[in-house]
Amino acid sequence: MAKTKKEAADCNEAAVADGNEKSYHELIAHVNAIARPLASRKLSKKLYKCVKKASKVKNIRRGVKEVQKFINKGEKGIVVMAGDTLPIDVYCHLPVMCEDRSLPYAYIPSKGDLGSSAGSKRPTCVILIKPHEDYQDAYDECVAEVTGLPKPL
Asked: Which of 7, 30, 36, 43 is the most exposed place for a label (fewest CB within 10 A)?
């Protein structure tokens, strides 16, 4: 017999989810040359979760212009940058700013995933996660792992 509408919708949703999902290794293939230190798969998931928790309490800064402005003002937090942003001239100055102000920073493979974890439909290339007591445990764990990553030369 014919499929019911619900079964057809479930099949279509599964096909869409399988088609759009890329593995970590596929995402790494499209990372640009300056994306160092690149977060591991496990750290990327932790950072996405921390961004999601921070966006729920409106405690993030999103976008190059906003993040740069608040880094210059002296705000503290973790800077998460997308490794697949092109041209790299858009945000290549931010790692130097972070190192000057001793802010931890890391690259993750996908700007689309970064934007969606922040609750946005648009891809985002840079996010600053500010500390907050609601997600302090996750924040501290991310800070410890990001500062442990090897810095580029």
From this structure: 7
